[in-house]
Request: fold
Amino acid sequence: DTEVTQTPKHLVMGMTNKKSLKCEQHMGHRAMYWYKQKAKKPPELMFVYSYEKLSINESVPSRFSPECPNSSLLNLHLHALQPEDSALYLCASSGRTGADYGYTFGSGTRLTVV
Amino acid sequence: GQQLNQSPQSMFIQEGEDVSMNCTSSSIFNTWLWYKQDPGEGPVLLIALYKAGELTSNGRLTAQFGITRKDSFLNISASIPSDVGIYFCAGLWTSGSRLTFGEGTQLTVNP
Reply:
């Protein structure tokens, strides 16, 4: 299995809602990431988990809350979002085996905040 | 944050033509990655380069890791309509660190 699976693929939420994005990988990768991408722009890093511990938080607002329940799963909890948070949210994972980091992205969740 | 200088920003070519795009950085990287992204999808890894000077091919794609570790190029030979998309270069220091992306090259292939 060489995939990163993200659910849901599309999400529409109101500014008072609470929702969660989910990400799963079974490649044995020990680093997992959340990126945010606006149209026609490169992805921007939000969070990095290394060995299930949060190692990088790119000064992301607290309305985004990451969680890593185990080495295969990564969640992003959303609460009280703003319309400008509408974007494609990408999960990625990478390994440390030999020289092949296999930095792999999921297909993303298209989030619309109304 | 830091970004790579990727050029060109866009290309309009005829089917069958060859394509070349490149990325430069003021910092060195240990790994260079090239991704292709279709609308509404995540980036798909095309080629990964791990050693300075390395030249790697994947079908019609060829990429090189610059000897100074500050640049990389990607060539696509004999382009086809399904090559349409945005191509991103990315530099990586080590696993568990952020990818530094270029701004992307939007490729359009006319049949």
